[in-house]
Design goal:
Layout: E1 3-4, H1 7-29, E2 34-40, H2 44-59, E3 63-69, H3 75-87, E4 93-96, H4 106-112, H5 124-131, H6 140-151, E5 160-164, H7 171-178, E6 188-192, H8 199-203, E7 208-211, E8 229-232, E9 236-237, E10 243-244, H9 249-252, E11 258-259, H10 266-283
Parallel strand pairs: 1-11, 2-3, 2-4, 5-6, 5-7, 7-8, 8-11
Antiparallel strand pairs: 9-10
The chain binds NADP nicotinamide-adenine-dinucleotide phosphate.
NADP nicotinamide-adenine-dinucleotide phosphate (NAP) binds near residues 170 and 270.
Length: about 280
């Protein structure tokens, strides 16, 4: 059987590091990091994520608040709220929980954030800095995947990495991150998407295969090079209530050198890296 990459355990150790950093920041500078989460509407999954974020923040000594807005809120009101949070010196980090209701323009709202408070790393300035190899806030899921690889001695350095999915949230920033000219990056990255002509063949080239497609159990054993490291970003709840990823664990595990489980792989890392970015925002104010 392959190595099972334990995201929960690695996230716990990152969170311990952050908690000591937060403690030190408080003692030496009297600064307590403060995160504001903006939750719009009643999406049950978003509510669960937001609760989990504020609970984790509390455990690490990070203060947080959740501002809940009605599903029907106008774009103008959301932008006004962001302006106020941008100006509030108490607030170090602002996170707008996605997805937004369809009448709101996600790009416009994310662009309104002060990039120095954009702890999700999705503002065009932060994505641009990442693209030019000078990252400030790295988007949390790509950041978490990078940490998972480094901390399990599967550095992407000089590896052929294939990423399935090119979203602005995961696939695209991850491709920028892993191809940066710096230690523990330097990967040769192939970014696949729904118009890739021969995706299984591409996937089979990968030393490190990362799936962020949002297609339940799509990646099967015959799409994986023997000895590859497989990172599964997808999260899907099946009809029987079971959580699965983009990867068909049963057929891929026997082929892989290492693999992340769902749940307990990438998911816990995303929250840990949000805390890391919030801590970093507080340190640099
Ligand atoms: N664990 C975590 O913390 C975490 C965080 C974020 C997301 N997720 C999960 O990760 C998955 C992806 O999220 P996302 O926000 O990146 O999704 P997304 O915005 O829907 O993007 C999906 C990407 O996959 C590509 N794709 C979809 N179906 C495909 C197919 N059959 N063949 C090839 N490419 C295909 C799409 O191609 P096109 O661009 O051509 O449409 C798109 O680039 C979801 O399951 C989500 O729940 C998990």
């Amino acid at each position: 059987m392959p190595e099972i990459i334990d995201g929960k355990k690695i996230a716990a150790s990152i969170k311990r590091e952050i908690a000591s950093g937060v403690e030190l920041l408080k003692r030496e500078k009297g600064v307590v990091p403060f995160l504001t989460v903006v939750l719009i509407g009643n999406d049950p999954a978003s509510e669960v994520y937001v609760k989990s974020k504020s609970k984790t923040a509390g455990k690490l000594g990070i203060q947080s608040e959740t501002i809940k807005l009605a599903e029907a809120v106008s774009e103008k009101d959301v932008l006004n709220l962001i302006d106020k949070l941008n100006e509030n010196p108490e607030v170090n980090g602002i996170l707008v929980q996605l997805p937004l209701p369809p009448h709101l323009n996600t790009e416009l709202i994310l662009e309104r954030l002060n990039p120095r408070k954009d702890v999700d790393g999705l503002h065009p300035t932060n994505l641009g800095l990442l693209a030019t190899g000078r990252p400030t806030f790295i988007p949390c899921t790509p950041f978490g995947i990078w940490e998972l690889l480094k901390r399990t001695n599967h550095s992407p350095e000089e590896k052929d990495v294939v990423i399935l999915g090119r979203s602005n949230l995961v696939g695209k920033p991850l491709s920028l991150l892993l191809s940066m000219k710096q230690k523990d990056c330097n990967a040769t990255v192939t970014l696949c998407h729904s118009r890739t002509s021969n995706l299984p063949q591409m996937a089979r080239q990968a030393d490190i295969l990362i799936s962020a497609m949002g297609q339940a159990e799509f990646v099967t054993g015959d799409m994986v090079k023997p000895g590859a490291v497989v990172i599964d970003v997808g999260i899907h709840r099946k009809e029987d209530g079971k959580l699965v990823g983009d990867v068909d664990f049963a057929s891929v595990a026997p082929v892989a050198l290492a693999i992340t489980p769902v749940p307990g792989g990438v998911g816990p890392m995303t929250i840990a890296m949000l805390m890391q970015n919030t801590f970093q925002a507080a340190k640099s104010t």
